Amino acid sequence: MTETTQDERPEHGTGGTYSVPGQEYARDTRYITTRIVADPAPGSDDVAVEPGRFRLVAARACPWANRTIIVRRLLGLEDVLSLGLCGPVHDARSWTFDLDPGGRDPVLGIERIQEAYFRRDPEYPRGITVPAIVDERTGAVVTNDFAQITLDLSTQWRAFHREGAPDLLPPAHREELDAVMRHVYTEVNNGVYRCGFAGSQEAYDAAYDRLWTALDGLEARLTDRRYLVGDTITEADVRLFTTLVRFDAVYHGHFKCNRQKLTELPALWAYARDLFQTPGFGDTVDFWQIKQHYYRVHTDINPSGIVPDGPDLSGWATPHGREALGGRPFGDGTPPGPVRAGERVDPEHTPLR
């Protein structure tokens, strides 16, 4: 959704083409690789971390953007990195700020994130994607490399983390973490898209088998351990969560990932509820926006544009029992505080209210 995929390229949008007949889905991963780092190397185009200078532009509908919102909140970067939120439905040009008064981002003053891309490069040829970090001084996008953004928030922005912020990339587990995160991305995060955007029966069948092989493996892995790596929440859990929380609402039906619902996978369902009920996770999730986005934007997959009323999402609030597996969610740290005013999910859009 937020990677440079077919659905976010400038020529696509509502009513666009997401599934190419006869082809398997291949994600376009060309991003702006500029980084925001603590100490930019001489001669690089990287930019120095500076509190109050940058704005994270995201969309609650999007799993890749949701990842950055979660990490920002867990690390307590709200006062350092501001947050702009696009609405759930983008058009052929780009995501828009239609939820803001007057349809403009109140800080950047723009109607579309496309404008920030064009301020960096008037001929910008790639996908207009979220998440993106924008320099508030120039109004130009600095980076949209979503995978690197969260890694840098944990490592390069460390001086500005809140007191008690968790270590989402613990060095003692980093090698295992990198392997697990790579597996989660290729097989699950991107795997649901390979199913949903498959252009042939053969491509779909292969994608479906590959996805469920991975999910079965994760079900087994999480049966006797609370988190994916070690005994604390890490970025690997953030990355898996954003797909799982969308699974029954959109991927099961809309993307035909329908061997089973998440609610029918005991370990994964309990694991997902455990995270959802942990501060920093479920309080960033807007199920209404998620459903609006997938069912209304992918019109070649859902030509009617009808958004289903179901499924019943009240189960997300039920006890999960994962405490019995031990673990320390925030390690030696503490949970984040209450969600900031102006960043709260509409209570009508979440089962926890």
TrEMBL record:
* Positions marked as site (Lowers pKa of active site Cys): 251, 294
- Basic and acidic residues biased stretches: 1-12, 341-353
Q: Which UniProt keywords apply?
A: Transferase
**CDD domains registered for this protein in UniProt:** GST_C_Omega_like
Any Pfam family from its record, for instance, is GST_N_2
Record keyword Transferase present? yes
**GO annotations of cellular component type:** cytoplasm
For the keyword Transferase, the answer is yes
Amino-acid positions noted as binding glutathione in the UniProt annotation, renumbered to this chain:
95
Provide the GO MF annotations for this entry. glutathione transferase activity
Q: What is this protein called?
A: Putative glutathione S-transferase
